[in-house]
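FAQ: What does the model actually see?

It sees only this:
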Amino acid sequence: MQGPFEAKPYTGKTAFEQWVEYEGVPMIRDFIVSDLNTVEVKPWDRLGAAGSWVVLGAPQDQLSMAAYVCEIGPGKSTEPQRHLFEELIFVLSGSGATTVWNEREKPLSFEWRRGSLFSPPLNSWHQHFNGSGTEPVRYVALTNAPAVFNMFHSCDFIMNNPHRFRDRFDHEPEYFSGKGEAHPGDVWESNFIPDIVDLPSYEFSTKGPGMKHVEIELSSNTLSGHIAEFPVGVYQKAHRHGPGAYIITLKGKGYSLMWPEGQNWERFDWGPWSMMSPPNRWFHQHFNLGREPIRQLALKGWGQKYPIGGWEQMFK
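And it is asked to produce this:
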């Protein structure tokens, strides 16, 4: 029987990498995955589902953010979880429900479907249910688990901590209703977005003609997201920022050029349900090759509500 996880010093591997190995879950390391729906997943005992970690970007950037893909079998559910790392969950296929609660409180439940975006509040108990008896559910989640594990290197502290973050979640009945509030800077703040296709976006011509975008803040996290759209025959202006932006293409196809300052560019082709992550301070530029507008969802390690020291700054 496997004993409790304990990070070992002087191994050359981070505490997060050791934890992933301990849990026996595959880890993909790359700049891009071509289709999140075809990522190989294997049984994940802790979740009671199947999954795989996806760690993107340059090797030196893979210290703070990581995504995982989770697949829940027909009629199944995940095991109840709580932890001290944030996660933004985007539903790739299927439909179901999630229940969220704190100790000695009545659970709150909400339903989701393909295209929904939400975030279980930090360190709250949560459990996901597949609503179909015949089809699996698959979602992808961006987390700051690497930063948290590498900082504390204590699984018990991270996964079994009783602290309750009342400022983030105090069992408000309408918490997951889908309601939200607009803020300056084209920001939409909500705790649950039923379908990002329906989320309004705003003109953003500083990135290129016809560009649109909307910033997304969820569950009082430091992690955040945004939607970007650009029309046919248009490319996005080159820009750069800190590490930890995982870009999912929702509609359309094209390619991106990415390069460190003063060096040659590399080309990365993408299409629907691909995911990529530009490395830290690498310039990157996106090009539309299709006959329809591009729509992309970026899940990222910084936001406007709780900025964290410069990652939110954009360099053109």
